[in-house]
Amino acid sequence: MDPVAKVILWVYGTAAVIVLLILIYLILKRIEKKKNEDFEGRTN
């Protein structure tokens, strides 16, 4: 495999891992936010 292809695959792999971690973080943050929602205390 030529070195340029290895660098491109490494960049794509790293980006995929970063995106996956961000997605997991946002999902967990949303779950925590949903647990704290209180619809009874709303003011309209």
Helix content, binned percent = over 70%
Strand content of the residues, in percent? under 5%
Q: What would the average pLDDT be, to the nearest integer? A: 90
How many helical elements? 1
Model description:
The protein has one helix at about 5-35. By secondary structure, it is mainly α. The longest helix is centred in the middle third of the chain and has 33 residues, at about 5-35. The protein is rod-shaped. The model has no long low-confidence stretch (mean pLDDT about 90).
Write the layout of secondary structure elements.
Layout: H1 3-35
Q: What does this entry show, briefly?
A:
The protein has one helix spanning 3-35. With 44 residues, the protein is mainly alpha-helical. 0% of the residues are buried.
List keywords for this structure.
44 residues, mainly alpha, 1 helix, 75% helix, 0% strand
